[in-house]
Write a structure and sequence with these properties.
The complex is a heterodimer. Chain A contains no helices and eleven strands. By secondary structure, chain A is mainly beta. Classes of the chains: A mainly beta, B mainly beta.
Chain lengths: 107, 118
Amino acid sequence: DIQMTQSPSTLSASVGDTVTITCRASQSISNNLAWYQQKPGKAPKVLIYKASNLESGVPSRFSGSRSGTEFTLTINSLQPDDFATYYCQQYNTYLFTFGPGTRVDIK
Amino acid sequence: QLQLQESGPGLVKPSETLSLTCTVSGYSISSGYYWGWIRQPPGKGLEWIGSMYRSETTYYNPSLKSRVTISADTFKNQFSLNLSSVTAADTAVYYCVRPYGDYGIDPWGQGTLVIVSS
């Protein structure tokens, strides 16, 4: 199985900050990785697919990148609506796996 | 617009089988795509349960494989999850989803909470 790790597990930030969340795969997954945002009581919503492609309708302050098996989600100029939990997910095989999540809360 | 909606009992007794149905609107599941289930225990992360393609092909989380069955009813345009021999550890919000190839998992149902308790 492909294991996904995420860091940090919690991140405290202020409106206007730039935040970075890292996700690492235990083996090569090419660029078959998505990022999701989840708010309390709601289903996750895809933000980024194929490591760096912005989902339609998602603000451009969200971006994704890849370096080998390390993936990064960056949020520029954090907005109040961005305080949420973020998950990465690999789909390189049909045995999908998620990272444990990163909660972004208000400092 | 493709939409998914979960339904089923919100309370299941230990050792019994959890059964949920996902009703799909806006697309015929017999036409293609994978369909699947993901769960999230209260306050915890997301766990993929399994996926199905036209009932021909299924992929299950190895940790749940011995207890899981995902199947389709194409006449009703629904697919289902059966999870046998449940314990309290299976208490979670269960989401039905469409794994959408390169585009990640989209859409998701709203989720349904299932509590395992006597």
